[in-house]
Every structure is written in structure tokens, then in C-alpha cells.
């Protein structure tokens, strides 16, 4: 099909009931895009949009194994598609449209937090991996930006990281933003036909992250399997830049560089139960002044505690699990943030009733806690989140029953029990039931509307239990016992129209209920 481009956007209908088809886009006989899409008609579920402003006034060719009539459902439009959906989370980032997964390129530069992310702008299922982009001043309220990276002949764009080159060691200019990413060769037909495999590549931005320019050549060629997910940081003690990279199976590698361009492998190791999205960072120990330990991290929240000398990571304990639930995944820490380590994960929601799927977790500060010679990761809500708290009512003590309405606004419920006693407390947030069983030492989450999912979270009965519940559309995140417990559960999408009810078999030592009030500008709107 030949199409004359008269407007900057190409609208393509998506029907979630249809099978995927592959479309190829050409200009002057050269391919500029290839997508897999559940192509629909005028009665489809929603429209996706492709920016074709670079071809205004020109003809493009679209090819695909579809009927001639289906091509005529694709048309030019003056504006991007709208992404209004009434049940979007208010304080969690969501893509404006389509599927998203891993956070990528997390970097704080010149007063702005950048969030790049794995994105399929052409449907609510995984595929067509691009990098989307959003910016924020506080990591709570976000503004969408233009597409950052699109697939090409080297593959779709898999996960990677960001770094601000303040000293111009790479030679692209002082304060240039560098983005290391995986070109997933073999993941699209374009790269298969070109014979490309997974490689680690570099893109740069000299305009504050607004546009990314690919640099020719791979910074690390293919090593093994689907090697991917580079994470870069500076190791001051050995005066070098370090890259952690996932190889294959449970195998990882560590590289060093003096200039962010040429990398030398210094270690390869296997970590049981760990795979994908490695990260490596030093954390303070909350209850041991001046002490720090290194953490090697992977996608499911499995981590190792140990030491790092700039060349090799040496674990000193068995693999541990940070998360109490399976919803968070592929967390990455922010580059460019001084004096604290901030982590953001992908929350892999199943709900796709709207025109998007997936959300990011709230930003969480990480630290360690030392107990009997071992170390455990802890999660803390950052000051940026705390600034949005507004008391809904005076804190209460010694109650056994409590009921309130959420009234359409995200909220936080902070509960505290003395677990020396015994009893069962039931808490309902909409259809999500939370049972705290102080005889069994566990929390149980049941979501009847989400395939009757039940999640059991153990806790220490010998200490006071604090449970901090952050309630948003589709999502409840929870922290317990000063961050020793962290997880997230999916709820019904209209939960903020529901009630919160507490019935306790033992007295609640204290309870505080907050409304969470982002800025007047609606979250995740352009």
C-alpha cells in the first residue's frame, strides 16, 4: 500500500481479539519501521499512533500479510492519540498507551528525574520493544515525552541504563547523557535478515534527554545467549566505570572502562536463582554507623551481599529475596542521585481493560539492616512521597474497628499492632482482603477479582508489626517493620471508589490515615 503523508501521525487500529500481524514501513525503498500488531478495523479497541512527521508531504509504503481492505483502516491524523482512562493510577507511572515493562535509563540530571522504559506503543501485549520517556521533578508526578528509541536493523531496544558524563570522559561534550542499551538482534525480522545478535550499544543526548542519537558500533559485542541489560556506575575507589551485564542462564559478567567507550571484562560468575537486569551498588547499614556493604541485584528481587574491589564482586552470604510478592520486577537504581540509593521497579499488572498495561512502583530508598552478623535489605518511602501526605483524620489508638471512604483519591493507611498478643485482624480495601494472623505470624492478601489470588507474607511475631499500605487505582504497595517487608498486589481498577474497613481481633496500637495529594496537574498526562 502506498500512502501519502499529509499529517504528522499515522493512526493504526488495535483489536485485542485479533491475532498479531507484521507490518513493514518503507520510505524510498528503505525500511524505517517494522511492527507486530493486533490489527483491527473501525470497531477495534483503541488506536495506536506512529510519528511520521519526518515524512510529511512524502509517500511511504506499507506491506503486510493482510487483506487490501485492512490497509485502508490506517490513516493520517493531525494529533497523537488520546490516552484518557478513568481508572489510571494517580501516584504510579503508567504509559500513555500500550504495554510497558522494565524501567530503563534512570538518571537524575540538572534537577530532572528521567524515566525511560520498555514500551510497546502498538498494543497491550509484550513486543515491539521501544524506549518510552517521561520526566519528573519528584518521581511521583510525571510528564510524558516523545519516543526515545525505536527498533532498527540491530534489533528491538531492550533494557539499559543512563549516565551523565559530567567530566566529558567519553568525548561527546560535558554533561552529555549516555544511554547504554541492548540491541536485541534476532527479536525482529529486520535484524534476523541482517544477521545481527544481541549486542550492547550506546546512544547519547546533548539536549537534556529529549532526543537520543545512536552511536555507531557496539560497545560490547555478542558474548553468550541473549546477553543483555547493561548497568553502569562509577567506582571511585578504583577510579573506573563499571558495567554489570546479564549473560545467559544464571551467569553475569562485570566490565571496567576508563572512558565509558572501551570495556574490559574482569569477572564472570554464576548466581543461583538470579537472572536478568543486574545492578550493583553500595548501601549504608542503618544500625551500624559508617558501615557499608555491596549488593548485587537481579530482576526478581533476588540479591547477594558482599564486597566489590572494582574488579570482582565477592559474595559473603546466600542469595536472599527482597520482595514479598511477585508483582515487582526488573528494578533499577537511579544514577546521579547523591547520598541515597533510589530504586524503581516494574509492576507487572494483568489488567488490560483500558488502552495500556503495566505500572511503575513508587520510588523507594534502599538501605541495609545488620542482625547477628547478616544483612537484610530494607525499603523506605522517600521524602518526595512524604511531601504529598495530608492527614484525613486525627490519628487513633486502641481501636478494634475502623471504616472510611477513599473518596476517589489515593491514600495511605499506617497501622501498628503489638504482636505479643494473639488474634486475627481483617482489613478490606474494596475487594482486597488483608488478614493479619498474629498466631501464625503472617499476612494474607486475597484479591477475589484478580483470579482469587492469595499471597502469604510471613513476619516476625516477636516485634511490633507496622504495616504501611499505599492505596492507588489497581495497586496496593505495602511496607512493614521499618522496611523489612515490601511488596505490591494488584486490585480491582476502581478501588479508589471503595471503602476501607478494619475489624481487629486485637487492639490496633495506632492508626493514621493519609490522603495523598499530587499536584493539581493530573498524573501521567502530557
Structural commentary:
- This protein folds into 3 domains: 2-77, no CATH class; 99-383, Tachylectin-2, Chain A (5 Propeller), CATH 2.115.10.20; 388-516, Sandwich (Jelly Rolls).
- It has 526 residues and is an all-beta fold.
- The chain contains 3 helices and 42 strands.
- A hairpin with a 4-residue loop joins strand 16 (228-235) and strand 17.
- It is globular and about 75 Å long.
- The longest helix has 6 residues, at 189-194.
Query: Helical percent range?
Result: under 10%
Please tally the β strands and state the result: 42
CATH C-level of the largest domain: Mainly Beta
N- to C-terminal distance: 33 Å
Question: How many distinct domains?
Answer: 3
DSSP summary: helix tally: 3
Q: How is the CATH topology of the largest domain named?
A: Tachylectin-2, Chain A
Shape: globular
Share in β-strands: over 45%
Please outline the major beta sheet: 6 strands, antiparallel
Amino acid at each position: 500500500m502506498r500512502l501519502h503523508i499529509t499529517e504528522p501521525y499515522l493512526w493504526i487500529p488495535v483489536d485485542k481479539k485479533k491475532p498479531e500481524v507484521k507490518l513493514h514501513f518503507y520510505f524510498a525503498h528503505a525500511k524505517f519501521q517494522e511492527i507486530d500488531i493486533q490489527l483491527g478495523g473501525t470497531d477495534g479497541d483503541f488506536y495506536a499512533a506512529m510519528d511520521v512527521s519526518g515524512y510529511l508531504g512524502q509517500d511511504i509504503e506499507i506491506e503486510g500479510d493482510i487483506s487490501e481492505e485492512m490497509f485502508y483502516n490506517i490513516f493520517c491524523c493531525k494529533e497523537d492519540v488520546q490516552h484518557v482512562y478513568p481508572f489510571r493510577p494517580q501516584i504510579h507511572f503508567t504509559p500513555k498507551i500500550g504495554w510497558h515493562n522494565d524501567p530503563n535509563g534512570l538518571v537524575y540530571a540538572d534537577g530532572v528525574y528521567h524515566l525511560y522504559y520498555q514500551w510497546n506503543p502498538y498494543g497491550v501485549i509484550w513486543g515491539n520493544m521501544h524506549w518510552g520517556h517521561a520526566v519528573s521533578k519528584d518521581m511521583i508526578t510525571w510528564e510524558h515525552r516523545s519516543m526515545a528509541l525505536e527498533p532498527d536493523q540491530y534489533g528491538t531496544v531492550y533494557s539499559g541504563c543512563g549516565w551523565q558524563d559530567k567530566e566529558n570522559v567519553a568525548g561527546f561534550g560535558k554533561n552529555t547523557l549516555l544511554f547504554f542499551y541492548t540491541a536485541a538482534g534476532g527479536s525482529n525480522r529486520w535484524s534476523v535478515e541482517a544477521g545481527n545478535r544481541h549486542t550492547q550499544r550506546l546512544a547519547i543526548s546533548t539536549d537534556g534527554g529529549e532526543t537520543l542519537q545512536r552511536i555507531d558500533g557496539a560497545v560490547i559485542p555478542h558474548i553468550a545467549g541473549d546477553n543483555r541489560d547493561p548497568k553502569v556506575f562509577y567506582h571511585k575507589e578504583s577510579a573506573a566505570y563499571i558495567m554489570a551485564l546479564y549473560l545467559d542462564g544464571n551467569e553475569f559478567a562485570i566490565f571496567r572502562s576508563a572512558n565509558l567507550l572501551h570495556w574490559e571484562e574482569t569477572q564472570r560468575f554464576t548466581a543461583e536463582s538470579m537472572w536478568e537486569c543486574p545492578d550493583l551498588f553500595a548501601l549504608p547499614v542503618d544500625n551500624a554507623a559508617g558501615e557499608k556493604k555491596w549488593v548485587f541485584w537481579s530482576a526478581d528481587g533476588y540479591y547477594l551481599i558482599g564486597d566489590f574491589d572494582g574488579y570482582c564482586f565477592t559474595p559473603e552470604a546466600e542469595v536472599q529475596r527482597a520482595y514479598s510478592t511477585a508483582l515487582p520486577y526488573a528494578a533499577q537504581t537511579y544514577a546521579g542521585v547523591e547520598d541515597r540509593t533510589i530504586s524503581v521497579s516494574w509492576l507487572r499488572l494483568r489488567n488490560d481493560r483500558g488502552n495500556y498495561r503495566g505500572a511503575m512502583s513508587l520510588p523507594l530508598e534502599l538501605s541495609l539492616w545488620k542482625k547477628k552478623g547478616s544483612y537484610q535489605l530494607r525499603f523506605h518511602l522517600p521524602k518526595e512521597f512524604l511531601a504529598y501526605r495530608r492527614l484525613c483524620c486525627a490519628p487513633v489508638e486502641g481501636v478494634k474497628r475502623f471504616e472510611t471512604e477513599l473518596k476517589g483519591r489515593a491514600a495511605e493507611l499506617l497501622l501498628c499492632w503489638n504482636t505479643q498478643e494473639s488474634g486475627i485482624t481483617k482489613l478490606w480495601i474494596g475487594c482486597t482482603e488483608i488478614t493479619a494472623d498474629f498466631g501464625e505470624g503472617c499476612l494474607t492478601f486475597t484479591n477475589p477479582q484478580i483470579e482469587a489470588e492469595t499471597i502469604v507474607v510471613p513476619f516476625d511475631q516477636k516485634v511490633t508489626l507496622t504495616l504501611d499500605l499505599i492505596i492507588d487505582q489497581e495497586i496496593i504497595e505495602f511496607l512493614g517493620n521499618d522496611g523489612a517487608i515490601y511488596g505490591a498486589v494488584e486490585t480491582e481498577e476502581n478501588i479508589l471508589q471503595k471503602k476501607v474497613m478494619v475489624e481487629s481481633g486485637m487492639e490496633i496500637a495506632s492508626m493514621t490515615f493519609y490522603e495523598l495529594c499530587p499536584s493539581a496537574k493530573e498524573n501521567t498526562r502530557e
